[in-house]
Design a protein that fits this description.
The complex is a heterodimer of chains A (about 110) and B (about 120).
Chain A: E1 4-6, E2 11-14, E3 19-25, E4 30-38, E5 45-51, E6 54-58, E7 61-66, E8 71-76, E9 85-93, E10 101-102, E11 106-111
Parallel strand pairs in A: 2-11
Antiparallel strand pairs in A: 1-3, 3-8, 4-5, 4-9, 6-7, 7-8, 9-10, 9-11
Chain B: E1 4-7, E2 10-13, E3 18-25, E4 31-37, E5 44-50, E6 53-57, E7 64-70, E8 73-79, E9 87-94, E10 105-106, E11 110-114
Parallel strand pairs in B: 2-11
Antiparallel strand pairs in B: 1-3, 3-8, 4-5, 4-9, 5-6, 7-8, 9-10, 9-11
Chain lengths: ~110, ~120
C-alpha cells in the first residue's frame, strides 16, 4: 500500500466550476499537510498548509483535513484557466523527521 | 522560482557519459534536497543535506553522487546512467529540516533523458 494515494486524473472542468481534489494516507503520525501546485515545466510551489483536522481558507482555495478518515481535500472555487496545473498533496509527521511524503499529483485543466 | 535555480534545464546523455546537475539557493536556507519526479509517480527523495552534511541517502544507486560544497550550492553527479533514470530532477531547499512549519522551496528542475 502506498503511503499517500492521490488520483492522477486528469481532471477537466469548465471555467467557474469548483475543483475538488483529495488524497488518502495510511500513516496516522502525519499531522502537517500541504498542497503544492506545479505548472508545466516548473517546480512545485507551496499553495497551502494546515495542521490537524478542520478547514483552512485562502481566497478561492480551501484545504480540509479529516484525520479520523485519513483524508485531505483541496477545493478551488470559481476556477480559472490559470489554475490549470498539477496539484500535489504532501504530508509529514511532527516528530522532527524532515521527510515529506507526496502523492503522485492530479493534473487539472480548466477550460475557458 | 528565482529563489532556487537549477542548471541545466534540459539534459540528454548517453549511458556512458558523465554529467553534473547544479542547484543554487538564494534564500539563506540550511538544508537542500534532491528529488526525482517520474510521470504519474510521487516525488522520490534522493538526498538531503543539512548544514552541508548529508543526512539522508535514500537507497539511491551509486551512479548518482551528490556534493554540497556549501549551504547555497548542491550538485548531483551522474555517471553510467540507465534509461529508467530519465526523469525530472528537482532541487529544493528549506530553512530547518526538523522545523515544525518547515516548507521546502523547489527549483524548476532538470529534465533528464538517458539514451
Amino acid at each position: 500500500q502506498k503511503e499517500v494515494e492521490q488520483d492522477p486524473g486528469p481532471l477537466s472542468v469548465p471555467e467557474g466550476a469548483i475543483v475538488s481534489l483529495n488524497c488518502t494516507y495510511s500513516n496516522s503520525a502525519f499531522q502537517y499537510f500541504m498542497w503544492y501546485r506545479q505548472y508545466s515545466r516548473k517546480g512545485p510551489e507551496l499553495l497551502m498548509y494546515t495542521y490537524s483536522s478542520g478547514n483552512k481558507e485562502d481566497g478561492r482555495f480551501t484545504a480540509q483535513v479529516d484525520k479520523s478518515s485519513k483524508y485531505i481535500s483541496l477545493f478551488i472555487r470559481d476556477s480559472q484557466p490559470s489554475d490549470s496545473a498539477t496539484y500535489l498533496c504532501a504530508m509529514r509527521s511532527l516528530s522532527g523527521d524532515y521527510k515529506l511524503s507526496f502523492g503522485a499529483g492530479t493534473t487539472v485543466t480548466v477550460r475557458a | 522560482e528565482t529563489g532556487v535555480t537549477q542548471t541545466p534545464r534540459h539534459l540528454v546523455m548517453g549511458m556512458t557519459n558523465k554529467k553534473s546537475l547544479k542547484c543554487e539557493q538564494h534564500l539563506g536556507h540550511n538544508a537542500m534536497y534532491w528529488y526525482k519526479q517520474s510521470a504519474k509517480k510521487p516525488l522520490e527523495l534522493m538526498f538531503v543535506y543539512s548544514l552541508e552534511e548529508r543526512v539522508e541517502n535514500n537507497s539511491v544507486p551509486s551512479r548518482f553522487s551528490p556534493e554540497c560544497p556549501n549551504s547555497s550550492h548542491l550538485f548531483l553527479h551522474l555517471h553510467t546512467l540507465q534509461p529508467e533514470d530519465s526523469a525530472l530532477y528537482l532541487c529544493a531547499s528549506s530553512q530547518d529540516p526538523a522545523g515544525v512549519e518547515e516548507t521546502q522551496y523547489f527549483g524548476p528542475g532538470t529534465r533528464l533523458l538517458v539514451l
